[in-house]
Batch of 2 targets.
Target 1
Amino acid sequence: MEQENPGVLKTEATQRAGQMRNRIRLRCVLALARKESYQIFRDPSSLIIAFVLPNILLLLFGWGISLDLGYIPIGVVVENRSTDTSRIVAALRGSPYFMVREADHRNELEPLLVGGRIKGLVVLSQDLSARLNAGSAPIQLLVAGSDANTAELIVGYMETVLQKDRLRWSEEAGQPLRSGIINIEGRVWYNPNMDSRSAILPGSIAVIMTLIGTILTSLVVAREWERGTMEALLASSITRAEFLLGKFIPYFVLGLAAMLVVALVSVVVFAVPFRGSWPVLVGVSAVYLAVALGLGLFISTATRNQFVATQAALIVGYLPSFILSDLVFEINSMPLPIRLLTHILPPRYFVSALRTLFLAGDVWDVIIPDTLILCIFAAVLWNLTIRKTRLTLE
Amino acid sequence: MFERIRRLVIKEFLAIFRDPASRMVVTIPPLIQLFVFSFGATLEVRNAGLGIYNEDGGLLGRELVARFWSVPITFSRIVPCKNLHDVQEALDTQRVLAVVHIPQDFSRALQSGQAPTVQVLLDGRRSNAAMVVQGYIGRIVAQFAQESGMSKDNRRDRPPQLLAVTRVWFNENLHPLWSSVPALLGILTNLVALLVTSLSVARERELGTFDQLLVSPLRPGEILVGKAVPAFAVAYLEGGLMVLVAVTIFGTPFRGSLLLLAAALFVFLLAIVGIGLWISSLAQTQQQALLGSFTYMVPAVLLSGFATPVENIHPAIRWISDIDPLRYMVAINRMIFLENPDPSVVLPYVWPLVPIATFTLVSAAWLFRHRLE
C-alpha cells in the first residue's frame, strides 16, 4: 500500500502536467505572437526578406534560367565553297541562336573549342557538293562537351536549323520532299508558346518560399536562447505548443502575404497564365508554409545556436530545393538512390502542385496527392520540433 | 603585428571548430552535397513516360510504335491511349511527358508516297524536358521515315540529303557527371567560404564580444585579416579534397594543370572571402547576415552557367553574370578538368576575379572601419 501510493500520485501528477503541457491558451499564444510581430516590424530585414527579396529572386529566375538558346558562338569550316555551302552558312547565320565564325580550314577553328571561345563547329567537307549530287552528304557537327547540358542543346538547335534549311531548299528547287518524310507537328499543352519563363516561374516560387521560410524562422528560437530571453519565457507558465504557435503565427501570416505577392507579380508582371483557382493556391501554399516554417523552427530548436542555425539554413535552404525539386533538372533522369532521396524533400511536391495550378488548372489527381504528402511532412516536422523543444534549463 | 594576427587566427579557428555542431556543418555537408547534386544536375531525359495514341491500324503504324518501345532508357513507361480522353488524363496527371499521336491514314499515306503528319503532344509544364524529348522523338521518326522510304526503292526521286554526324569533344559520351562535378566544386567551395565569413563579424557584434576586439590592440585591418584567413583556409582545403574525390571516386578526368587550378581557386576564394566579410560588416544581426548570404548566393548560382548557359540569360541582367565570380570559376573548373587548356586561354577568366577580389576586400575593410561607430 504505502509503496504504491507515491507511484499513483506520481502518475497523477505527470498526467496533470501532461494536460497542462498540451493545453493551448489563446491569450498566451496571442501575446507571444504580438511580441514576435513587434520584433518583425522593428528589424526591417524581416520585411525585406518577406517582400523585397522574393520579387528580386523571381526576376532572377525568370530572366536568368532559360533553355531558349541565346546567341551561342559557333564556327563553320567551309573547305570548298559552293552554292550549297553558302546556303548552309547563310541558314546558320540567319538563325537567332548562333553567332557564326567562318574559316577555310578546321585547324583555324578547332583550337577555339578549348576554353569555349566557340562552343560548336560545323564542318562542310571538301566533297560536300559532289556527294550531295550523288544523293547524300555528311555534315560533321563538333561540340564542346565540357558543359554536357549546353552541348546537347546546341546539337539539337543545329540539327533543327539544318533540317529546316533542307526542307525549304527542296521546296524552292521544285522537288518538295515527299516520300521518306513524315511531318512532325509538335503541340505543347499548358504552355503553347513553349515559353521557358512560364514553365520556370511557378516552380521557382517553391524554391523562393523555401528560402524565405527558412530565413524567417531558422533563427527565432536560437535567438531567444542566445540572448537569454528564453529564460524569462521558461519562468512563465507557457507550454511548448503555445510557445511554438506564438512563434509560428506571425511568420505564417507574413509568409502567406509574401506568397500571394509573388504569385500576383508572376501573373501580372511576367504574364504567366494562372488557370487554377486562387483559394486552392492559398490552401496549398498554407500547407507548404507550415512545412517550410516548420523546417526553420526545427533547425532553430535543434541547434539553439544562431551561428550553427544560420549555417544549417544556408545549406538546406537553397541548393537542395533548387537542384532536387524537378524545377530545372528532371528527377526521372536521376539515378535511383537520388530519385528516392527526392521523395523525402518537400519542394518537389510544391513545385508539381504550383506548376499544375498555374499552367494546367485544378487537376485534382495531382493537387490532392501533393497536398496530402505535404501535410505528412508538416506533421512529422512539427512533431519533431515539439519533441526537441525543451522548456527547462539543464 | 603578425603575432597579433596569428593569435586572432587561432581564436577564429577555435570558434569554428570547437563546437561539434559547427565543425560538422562546415566539413561534412559540402561533400555530401557534391555526391548528391552531381548526379542530380542533368538535363538529359531518362525514365520518362510516353503516351502512344495510335489510330492507325496498319503495319507501318505498329512498326513506328515498336521503335518507341526499343528505347527503354529514355522511355521506361509506354502508356497506350485509346482515345483523346486517355491522352488528356495521361498528360494532366504527369504520368507521361509526351504523347505521340499517329493518325488514321498514317500507313496508307506513307505507302502511297505522301507525307503523313505525326502529332506530338508535350507537357509544357516541364518545358525543358519537353523540348529535349521533342527533339528525341523527331529523330526517331525521321530515322523511321528514312528507312521505310529506302525500302520502297524510290531512292532516285529523292532529293539530296544532308546527314548530320555529331561528335563531342572533351566529354565524348556527354556524361553529365563530368560537367556537373567541376561546376559544383566551384559552387560548394563558395558556399563553405561564405558560411564561415559572412557570420563572423555579425556574430561577435550580436554577442557583444566585438567591443572587446575593438578595445584590444588589434587594428581594424588586422581584425579583417584574422577573420579572412581561417575561412580561406577551410574553403581551400575543402576544395582540394573535392578535386581528390572528383578524380578518385567519380572518375572525372583531370586533364589540365593542377597548379593553374590551385592559382585560380586562390584568387576566386579571395573574392568570396571579400564578399563574405562585406556582408558581415554590413549586417547588424546574424539574421541580416543570413539574408545577405542568400542574396549573394542565389543569383551567383543561377547566373553562373551551372544550370543553363550564360548566353541564355536575358540581356537586361547579363551584366550581373559578368561580375559574378562563380561564373568564372565554373568555366575555369570545367576547362581545367576536361579540356587541358593553355594558360593563355584560362587567364582571361582569372583576370576578372582580381578586380572583384580587390574591390570586395578593400570595401569590406572600409565598411568595417566606418561601421565601428
Note: Chain A touches chain B through 126 residues (CB under 8 Å).
Target 2
Amino acid sequence: MSYQTKSIATRWVTALLAAAALVLTGCKTVPADTLTSFTSGITSARTQSQEAFNAVNELVADASLDYAASQTNLVESSFTAGLDEESLAAWDQVLEKLEKYAQHLQLLTSPDLAKSFDDEAVNLSAELNNFGQHLQGSGLINKSPQISPAIATGFTKLGELIVRLRAQTRARKVLVATDAEIGRIFRTMADSVGTSRTNEIRGTVTAHWTQFLAEKKVAFRNQPDLAGKRQIAADFLQLLERRVAQDLVLLSLRRSLLQLAELHHALAQGERWTAQSAAAAIADEIKRTRDLNDRFKDKLKNQ
Amino acid sequence: MNQDLHQLHDLLIAQHQALFAKLDEAGDADEGKAILTEMQEILHRIDVLQNLLFRKTTTALTNNLQKVDDADTELTNTLKSAATATDIIKGVGKFLTVVDKAIDLAKTLAPLAV
C-alpha cells in the first residue's frame, strides 16, 4: 500500500472514531459498573432470600409442633405452613426474571456485543481475498482486487459502532420505561420482609423469639435453686443474641432489595459522559481498532 | 382487604409483645403459664396471617411482572438484531464459497465443451 493510501485510510479511521466519540459525548450511557452491581446484587438477593426464608420456616415448623401438642385434639389446622413452597417459588421466580433481564442488559451494553461481527468481517476479508485470487487464477479477471487492511478496519469499525450504539440506545430506553415498575417490585419485596422488627416477616420472627424468651421467664420463676436460675439466665441471653442475629439477616435482605431499586434507578438515569470517561472510552476504542487492524493485516498479509 | 390483614398482623404482634411484658407482673406460676398459653395461641394466628400475607404479596408480584417480561423481550430482540448483522456477513462468506465451487466446476467442464 502506498504512503498516500495508508495516510488516507488512517485519517478515515481517525475521523470515524472522532465522530463516534462526538455522538457518545452528547448522550447518556448505561453505567457499566452499576449494571454489574445490579446483576450480581440480584443473584445475591436470591441466595439471601432462600437462606433467610428457610430459617424462618424452621422456626415456624418448630412452633407449629409445640402448638399442636398443646391442643386437646390433633387437627391439621394446628400446623401452619409458614412461608409455603408455592409462594417461595413465586418469590424466587420474580428474582429469576429480574436476573435474566439484568443479564440481557449486560450483554446488550457490553463492548463485546459486536465481537462476532468483527470476527466474521475479518473472515470475510480473507474469503474475498481468496475469491479474487480464484477469479484471477480462472482467467476471469486479469488482476485480483486489492483489499486494504486499513479500509477494511474502517468499514468494520463503522458497522460495529452502529450495532453498539443502537444496542446502547435500546438498553437505555428499556431501563427508563421499566424503572418505576421495577422499583415498585423491589420495594414491595423489601416491605414484605418488614420495615421494622414489629411488622411483616421480621415481626413474625421476633414474635417467635419472644415466645422462647417467655418460656424461659416462666421457667426462671419456677426454678428454686441458684445454679438452675443461672443456667436459664444464660439460655435467655443466648436467645436474645439469636433473635438479633436472625433479624439482622432479614434486615440485610431488605436493604439489598432496596439497594437494587436504587441501582436500577441509577441505571435508568444513566451517566453523562465526562471529559474523562470520553477519553477513556476513546482510548479503549483506539486499542480495539488497532487490534482489529492487526487481524486484518494478518488475514490479508499476502497482499 | 390486604391492608386489613396487615393491620391485624401488626396488632397481634403488638398484643403478643404486651403479654410478654405482663409476664413480669404475674402473681404466681399458674398465671405465668396462662399468659404463656395465650401467647402461643396468638403466635399461631400470627403465623397463619403471615402465610396469607406472603402468599398475597407473591401473587401480586407475579401478576405485575408483565412489564419486565415485555422489557426482556425487547432486549432479546435487540440482541438478535445485533446477531443478524453478523449473520449477513457470514452469509456473504457462504455465498462466496458456493461461487468458488461453481467456478471450479465451470473450469472442469470447460475443456469438455470444446
Note: Chain A has one domain: 3-299.
